Amino acid sequence: MNKTASEAIDLARVLVAHLELFTDVERVLCPPFIALASVANLLQDSIGLGAQNMHWEKSGAFTGEVSPTMLVGLCQYVILGHSERRQYFCETDENVNRKVKAALAHSLTPIICVGENLAENEAGQTAAVVTRQMRLAYIGVSLDKALKTIIAYEPVWAIGTGKAATPEGANAVIGQHIRGVLAEMYSTSIADSVRVLYGGSVTAANANELMAQPDIDGALVGGASLKPVEFGAIVKAASSREQIDDG
Fold first, then answer.
1. Does residue 134 register a pLDDT over 70?
2. Within 13 A of 104's CA, how many CA atoms are on the CB side?
3. Tell me, what's the pLDDT at 246?
4. Fewest CB within a 10 Å sphere: which of 60, 93, 130, 233?
């Protein structure tokens, strides 16, 4: 919840200048709802655009909500199940699943967030929590639809705290409990194909080490995305990884 509509335009304009060189990686901006239309006009499909949330119903008596049909034609992506939505707005795994299926039904690419909080992490429950969130998020999602999703592993204890998970630790969770569930529910091929991002105090200082991990495909960036130079450096790290993989 940052920036007015006019401030979002100014930020997006500066961000584009820092991102336009890295066309070999997918770059997506997710501003608040009030800025989606104006930022869409600025980007003109040069960079992807996403919403920060979405209701699962097409329309109805859900005052203050935004439906998938309202997003179609405006953006291509939508973040679902973000830890702040789960923590502050009581979103459940079942609701996230409804949103995932609604997004896919309207050809929106869901960025599905999963991750444990501090108490769960300290209690050794990371595997159980992430596995549960993954399984429930994909209930009723067909194999071909699963391929059209993106997952973001965001340990809640690392978001906005400056305490990022270690690259090796994040990679292990993604490999074992995120790709592991996809392999169990679909196939190893699907598990390897779905893109998985890491989110949680991602900065220019740790981006290269995170991107070097084999199971981390990119980043869901929070606070650093408000700093164009910092965000540009993170995207550069993703670009460098892509060039190494292709080389």
1. yes
2. 22
3. 53
4. 60
Q: pLDDT (tens digit, 9 = 90+) per residue, 136-176? A: 999 999 999 999 999 999 998 887 777 778 999 999 999 99
The catalytic residue among 55, 82, 116, 120 is 82
Measured distance CA(173)–CA(200) in Å, rounded = 14
Active-site residue (options: 91, 116, 120, 154): 154
Active site residue 242: no
CA distance from start to end of the chain = 39
Is 230 considered catalytic here?
A: no
pLDDT digits (tens, 9 = 90+) for 198-246: 998 899 999 999 999 999 999 999 999 999 999 999 999 999 876 655 5
* Structural domains in the chain plus CATH codes: 73-246 (3.20.20.70)
Residue type, 234: I
